[in-house]
Amino acid sequence: MFRTFLRPGWIVLGLVVVAFAALCFWILAPWQLGKNSSTEKRNDLIRTAVGEAVVPIDDIAPAGRAFAPDTEWREVSIDGRYRPDLQVAVRLRSVQERPATEILTPFVSADGRAFLVDRGYVRPDQGKSISDVPAAPTGLTTIHARIRKNEGTSPGRGAHIADGVKAVYTIDPVVVGTQTGLTFDDFYLQLSANQPGSLGEIALPQLDSGPYLSYGLQWLAFGVMAPLGAAYFIYSEVKHRRAVRDTTSSGDEVSVEPPKPKTQMRDAGFTAAASTQRHQIGSGPDASEATDDVKAKLAKRYGG
Question: Where is this region: Disordered (predicted)?
């Protein structure tokens, strides 16, 4: 019976079920649960940062120290000057579910430290080219901005020129530094609202965990249900084949009764002698088995 499950169809089904369960447990569920963990951590950092006062940049991220992830979203203050001549556009962005272009302008502090500042966004449908974006002030000024981590750069999507302006697709201080000739810290600054040189405000993310947790639990459930479903199909197949086998075996054991002999004539009120009488053409009845008395009467009547 179990040789049935060595057929190609069942083998393929088993491989598909195992592959799907492995995909659910080791790729899809961890992916969604990981996104949920990242979102929760980001929300915790934002809640903490919003409740903190603005402090000088050197108190949170002193020069020469690597970016600390727990400092992201903290609001800091910097004294210095913009470098609008080294402005860079970040293309193909989305703000409030609409296309946008973000503007990066270097900001050099009073002690000569360079920071990459995201001044906000402009809409590409405003009928103006990137070069028409309002310039940042050039004088000495103080700005407030939030620390943001480096977004990195995907292969093939580095620095380029668009509409005669330096442009990038992601905010990567290393890549922008190669365009501008400046050396930035390995994070950038998101300019707060109503600051000198600010453009369209990029609001803080909503503190919503999203559907990632439920998606992750669903993938775990699918990973459990797939083997259970396959086991049920195998059980049903075995049960069906056993039922067919038992039915066939019981059919072979049924005996066929031979036809019953005819009821003896005597049971119907006839004697054995009467049942054996034979008549011949031109002669009397065959009385070979008759009694002596009957024979005598027949001889007297017919002669003999």
Answer: 244-293
In this structure, are 81 and 119 located in the same domain?
A: yes
Q: Is residue 256 part of a domain?
A: no
Residue 187 domain boundaries: 74-191
Beta strand pairing status for 187-191 and 114-122? parallel
Task: Answer yes or no: are the C-beta atoms of 103 and 87 closer than 8 Å.
Answer: yes
- Per cent of the chain over pLDDT 90 is 58
Beta-bridge mates of residue 121: 102, 200
Residue 82 covered by a domain: yes
Q: How far is Cα 301 from Cα 281, in angstroms, rounded to an integer?
A: 18
Q: Identity (one letter) of the amino acid at 112?
A: G
* Contact criterion met (CB below 8 Å) for 135 and 84: yes
The model's confidence at residue 16, banded by pLDDT at 50, 70 and 90, is: very high
Say how far apart CA 118 and CA 137 lie, in whole Å: 14
CB of 166 closer than 8 Å to CB of 106: no
- 167 and 220 both lie in a single domain: no
Percent of residues, the chain, with pLDDT higher than 70: 79
Query: Is there a single domain that holds both residue 88 and residue 183?
Result: yes
Answer yes or no: is 277 within a domain. Answer: no
DSSP string, 207-266: ---TTHHHHHHHHHHHHHHHHHHHHHHHHHHHHHHHHHHHHHHHHHTPPPPPPPPPPPGG
Residues 19 and 108 in one domain: no
Q: How much is the CA Rg of the chain, to the nearest whole Å? A: 50
- Residue at 272 is within a domain: no
